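Appendix B. Chain record.
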Amino acid sequence: MEVKDSNGTGLNEGDNVQIIKDLKVKGSSAVLKRGTMVKNIRLTDDEGEIEGKVEKTMMVLKTMFLKKV
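Structure tokens predicted for this chain:
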């Protein structure tokens, strides 16, 4: 399985990515702002999603809203 970011760059375990669009957090009034760094990502079973720690909370993010840094 090959996981790619919004630009088609391959992602690996432990990479750092950046959010490219403001995202609403489901079940909360919080918003993840564009440019927020997600460090040390983990790959999931789904090639369209990754896990990463954002603001001390573990979240699952869609790769279409991320770019590798």
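Further analysis of this model is presented in Appendix C.
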